[in-house]
Amino acid sequence: MTADRSRSFASHRFAWPTVLAAMLLASPCAPAVAGDPVAWRLDPVHTRVMFAVSHAGFSNAIGTISGSEGTLLFDPEDLSSARLEVSVPLDRLDLGDDAWNRAALGSRLLDAVDHPRAEFRSSTVQPHDDSSATLCGELTLRGISAPLCLEVKVNDVRRHPMPPFRRTAGFSAAGVLSRSDHGVDGWGSMIGDEVELRIEAEAVRSRGAAAAFEPDASEPGAPEPGAPEADVPTAEQPTDVESGMRSDEPTPPEATPDP
């Protein structure tokens, strides 16, 4: 009888891990299955688009755009499952000169009054290794969409060392676009057609961000793709775009010629 009790105790002892695992999987608080893409939201304070374009062949004009917002589905163990939607506020463009900023945002170039944001939505991801991939999708600029591919590097995925210690992912990306593909063809003799892009971005875990990829995300009450949550820093939104830029039609500012 003692032997029977010992065998019974042993069988229950080895059964408990199986029972416990089943309970955890059934629990609504159970962790996500490994390999499932997780929702992230871009941090607009630490996301920056940099661009370079030829200035009449003399040099490359360098500009930046801050304040981008967007959502990301991303599994660090499976880059091919990543999906991205980004909205870039063109009124945050900075070429280092007020006159050039107004010209770039005017109707002959970006036409930011009628098209205040550039939008990117990914379609495919081709991983190269565990930390790099080619991300392709569609960029809409000045109301015209065209394909765009970016070479993306995953810099790190871990908890941020500063409070509130959010899980953060950091990325660097580079690509090239043709501005004429988007109808941005003004001053072709002075401004190059090829625009080089470099992007530095950070994203934080966000439970609500996944709603942007749901079929009904555009319905009333659903989160908008780029709408920031309270736990994500939000860049200030200045209103630099001048209401008269369409009628002013500024010409590219140039230095005063030497006498």
Automatic annotation (TrEMBL):
Region (Disordered) residue spans: 207-259
| UniProt feature, compositional bias: Low complexity | 207-221
Keyword list, A-Z: Signal
Q: Where is composition skewed (Pro residues) in this entry? A: 250-259
Domain spans labelled Lipid/polyisoprenoid-binding YceI-like: 39-204
Position of the signal peptide: 1-34
Under the heading InterPro entries, the entry gives: Lipid/polyisoprenoid-bd_YceI, TTHA0802/YceI-like_sf
The protein, known as: Polyisoprenoid-binding protein YceI
The species is Lysobacter spongiicola DSM 21749
